[in-house]
């Protein structure tokens, strides 16, 4: 599928590619939908093999942000930006100030924040050039604590749907990825008495999980074969695919990663094998809730209360899936689309 095929199929409003050779900068901004409000989505810094890969990633992630904000009940649309380059690059000021200048040309239609490969310090560099950025130091800051808490609440709701009880005590959770979101999730799980099995490309992070949470280290590929109750993808996307789904020995899938399904059809493949899939953008909605806190001036307490509501959203997804006999992924999409359609239908009122 080409970039323009995706653009048409998903109904994106805008796709912008920018460069600044002097700053060694190539960036992409995808705006999917601004029905509910300005398009919010983080800036991802990644060393893509081809620009086509970066384009597809931006388009898919932007669409996911629209649906994530919609099901979370936020006054925000969906967008995403990617910057092509090494996440460990040292020339960050020129790169992110260049990115900020291009974000500013969109006039507030798009608001950026931190994502994979970027931090609140990078957002501060962007802020030198535009006010359309969130997740700044001293403001809402790192969204990982709220995201991790939201995934935890989603996991408890999934447990209730699967086992009739939301207690996770004594369960085994196979966690793929030991980054910031995974760490906050692990803390909640450990406190409830969960046994963690963890893998990550960074062996040091896995060792810290073992020291702090008693986690068992698992090989990168072996994570798909371990016997566990829950698989929690918390790294990059597309880990649920034709090769991995048949290998999983779990009853629930619930994690913090975006775009966990390699293709939409894999939602049915997961359910055919008797596993409960928690739609990724429902489970990890705490991040966008945290950013909305900064944009709307919410208190931290209100943001955490909103993230706790992810539990109820998962229950609504289950109800729709059962009533309409669709997968949980399709049910979540329908909830998002219903809200988008309702707001689009609002009558314009002149002043």
Number of separate domains = 2
List segments where confidence is low: pLDDT < 50 over at least 5 consecutive residues. Answer: none
CATH topology of the largest domain: Rossmann fold
N to C succession of SSEs: HEEEEHEHEHHEHEHEEEHEHHHHH
CATH class of the largest domain: Alpha Beta
Q: Number of DSSP strands?
A: 12
Number of H- or I-type helical stretches: 13
The CATH homologous superfamily of the largest domain: NAD(P)-binding Rossmann-like Domain
Largest sheet: 6 strands, mixed
The helix-and-strand class reads: alpha/beta
Computed CA radius of gyration, to the nearest angstrom: 19 Å
Amino-to-carboxy terminus distance: 45 Å
Descriptive account of the structure:
With 351 residues, the protein is α/β, with parallel strands linked by helices. It folds into 2 domains: 3-65 and 76-127, Rossmann fold, CATH 3.40.50; 144-284 and 314-336, NAD(P)-binding Rossmann-like Domain (Rossmann fold, 3-Layer(aba) Sandwich). The chain has 13 helices and 12 strands. It has helices spanning 3-10, 51-71, 92-104, 120-127, 144-163, 180-191, 203-213, 266-272, 280-283, 286-296, 300-308, 310-324, 328-344, and strands spanning 14-20, 25-33, 39-40, 43-46, 77-84, 110-111, 172-176, 195-199, 216-217, 230-233, 252-253, 276-277. Strand 7 (172-176), helix 6 (180-191) and strand 8 (195-199) form a beta-alpha-beta unit. It starts with a helix and ends in a 7-residue tail after the last helix.
């Amino acid at each position: 599928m080409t970039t323009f095929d995706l653009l048409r199929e998903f109904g994106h409003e805008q796709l912008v590619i920018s460069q600044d050779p002097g700053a060694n900068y190539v960036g992409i901004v995808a705006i999917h939908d601004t029905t509910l409000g300005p398009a919010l989505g983080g800036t991802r810094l990644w060393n893509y093999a081809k620009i086509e890969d970066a384009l597809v990633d931006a388009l898919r992630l932007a669409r996911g942000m629209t649906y994530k904000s919609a099901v979370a009940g936020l006054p925000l649309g969906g967008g995403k930006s990617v910057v092509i380059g090494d996440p460990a690059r040292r020339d960050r000021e020129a790169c992110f100030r260049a990115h900020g200048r291009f974000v500013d040309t969109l006039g507030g239609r798009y608001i950026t924040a931190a994502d994979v490969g970027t931090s609140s310090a990078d957002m501060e560099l962007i802020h030198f050039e535009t006010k359309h950025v969130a997740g700044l130091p001293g403001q809402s800051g790192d969204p990982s604590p709220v995201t991790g808490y939201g995934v935890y609440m989603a996991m408890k709701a999934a447990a209730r749907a699967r086992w009739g009880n939301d207690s996770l005590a004594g369960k085994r959770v196979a966690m793929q990825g030991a980054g910031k979101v995974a760490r906050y999730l692990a803390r909640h799980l450990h406190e409830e008495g969960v046994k963690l099995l963890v893998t990550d490309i960074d062996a040091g992070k896995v060792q810290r999980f073992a020291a702090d949470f008693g986690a068992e280290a698992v090989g990168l590929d072996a994570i798909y074969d371990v016997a566990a109750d829950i698989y929690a993808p918390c790294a990059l996307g597309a880990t649920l695919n034709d090769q991995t789904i048949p290998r999983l020995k779990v009853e629930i899938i619930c994690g913090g990663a975006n775009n966990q399904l390699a293709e939409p059809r894999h939602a049915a493949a997961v359910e055919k094998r008797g596993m409960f899939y928690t739609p990724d953008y429902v489970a990890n909605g705490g991040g966008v809730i945290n950013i909305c806190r900064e944009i709307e001036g919410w208190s931290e307490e209100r943001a955490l209360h909103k993230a706790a509501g992810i539990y109820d959203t998962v229950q609504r997804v289950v109800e729709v899936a059962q009533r309409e006999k669709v997968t949980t992924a399709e049910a979540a999409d329908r909830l998002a689309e219903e809200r988008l359609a309702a707001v689009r239908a609002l009558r314009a009122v002149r002043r």
